């Protein structure tokens, strides 16, 4: 299964509580509903064995059908509106990675 992994921090004006509310009420349900998506999960990093936490949030989009996602979900107005809103809530120095499940 394909995975999109996004590593990021929140913008300075967004609190963890505000972001959690946004994820629970908007972002999560929207991403879960997109064509080709199996589920979305968000991990808030709370500690590190090295003591440093370069990214506080890790979003993982489990994509069961990459072709369907690329053809219908990614270019849709609903997804593009989401990206526009989300980008105002996070630090612009985020990383977006694509991969496939090995195990």
Concise summary:
The protein has 103 residues and is of the alpha+beta class. It contains 3 helices and 4 strands; from the N terminus they run βαββααβ.
Shape: globular
- Outline the biggest β-sheet: 4 strands, antiparallel
Helical fraction equals: 25-40%
- The third-level CATH topology is Alpha-Beta Plaits
Oligomer: single chain
Order of helices and strands: EHEEHHE
The order of strands across the largest sheet is: 2-3-1-4
CA-CA gap between termini? 10 Å
Counting H and I runs of at least 4 residues, what is the number of helices?
3
Low-confidence stretches at least 5 residues in length (pLDDT < 50)? none
Q: What is the count of β-strands?
A: 4
Q: Give the averaged pLDDT, no decimals.
A: 96
Radius of gyration of CA atoms, rounded to a whole number = 14 Å
| Class by SSE composition | alpha+beta
CATH architecture: 2-Layer Sandwich
Q: Briefly, what CATH class? A: Alpha Beta
Instruction: Give the tally of structural domains.
Output: 1
Could you tell me the strand content as a percent range?
25-35%
Structure overview:
With 103 residues, the protein is of the alpha+beta class. It is 36% helix and 27% strand. It has three helices and four strands; from the N terminus they run βαββααβ. It has helices at 16-33, 66-73, 77-87; strands at residues 2-8, 37-44, 57-63, 95-100. It has a four-stranded antiparallel beta sheet with strand order 2-3-1-4, covered by helices on one side. It is globular, with a radius of gyration of 14 Å.
């Amino acid at each position: 299964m394909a995975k999109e992994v996004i590593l990021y921090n929140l913008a300075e004006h967004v609190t963890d509580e505000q972001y959690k509310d946004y994820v629970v009420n908007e972002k999560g349900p929207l991403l879960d509903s997109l064509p080709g998506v199996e589920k979305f999960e968000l991990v808030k990093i709370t500690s590190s064995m090295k003591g440093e936490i370069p990214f506080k949030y890790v979003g993982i989009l489990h994509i069961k059908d990459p072709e369907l996602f690329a053809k219908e979900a990614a270019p849709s107005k609903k997804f593009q509106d989401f990206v526009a809103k989300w980008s105002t809530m996070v630090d612009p120095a985020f990383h977006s990675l694509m991969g496939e499940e090995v195990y």
